[in-house]
Design a protein that fits this description.
With about 210 residues, the chain is mainly α. It is built from nine helices and no strands.
């Protein structure tokens, strides 16, 4: 090993520790001020890393936000899946509503951050690693909705997948549209439930 080189294990631990500090700093600052009120320099300073070091892990503020929100989104999906499993004995759309309740809360916890996160996933580069991870989480949520729609109902997999895309579109609009920002989470969820009900009713009539 050359002089000044850090052993591989220690180097990996140092890298992980820096990432954790950056994530913690970004999470705290975004929660306190919203994404538009934070600079990458502020994140670097709170994380106690050089700005060049920060850019090794996230080259833009948007990527920092996606890193943070991906973790929260993943936790919300896990919580929703557990709630949906507990609600499987109820008629649709209740298990679907149980699934998406934590997701709605996650997106609306800090409105500016949630809206920016979804915008970045939809309109950003899908090959960028953090966005790719976020899109995979979105696909996981959509697959979970599909699975719930096919349980105990006369909805085949193809129709359920189409309805799941409708549901995720409804979530996106209901949680980010400016006209709905004044609503409580419960009001937003009630509106989403009504829209899912309408979509299911229309589908049954067509069948």
């Amino acid at each position: 090993m050359g002089r000044g080189q850090m052993p591989t294990g220690r180097r990996e631990r140092a890298k992980k520790e820096k990432i954790e500090r950056i994530m913690t700093a970004a999470r705290e600052l975004f929660a306190e001020h919203g994404v538009n009120g934070v600079t990458t320099q502020q994140v670097a300073e709170r994380a106690d890393v050089a700005i060049g070091t920060l850019y090794l892990y996230a080259s833009t503020k948007a990527e920092l936000l996606i890193m943070v929100q991906n973790d929260k989104f993943a936790d919300a999906i896990d919580e929703g899946l557990a709630a949906a499993n507990a609600a499987l004995g109820q008629a649709l759309p209740e298990p679907v509503v149980a699934l998406i309740r934590p997701v709605v809360a996650c997106i609306r916890e800090q409105t500016e951050n949630g809206r920016t996160y979804l915008h970045e996933l939809v309109f950003g580069d899908p090959d960028e690693p953090y966005r790719r991870a976020g899109l995979a989480l979105s696909a996981r949520l959509e697959d979970a909705v599909t699975g719930l729609l096919t349980r105990g109902e006369s909805i085949d997999a193809a129709d359920a997948a189409t309805l799941a895309r409708v549901v995720t579109a409804i979530i996106h609009i209901s949680t980010t549209a400016t006209v709905y920002l004044h609503r409580s989470d419960d009001a937003v969820l009630a509106d989403i439930r009504d829209q899912i009900d309408a979509a299911l009713t229309a589908r049954h009539r067509a069948a």
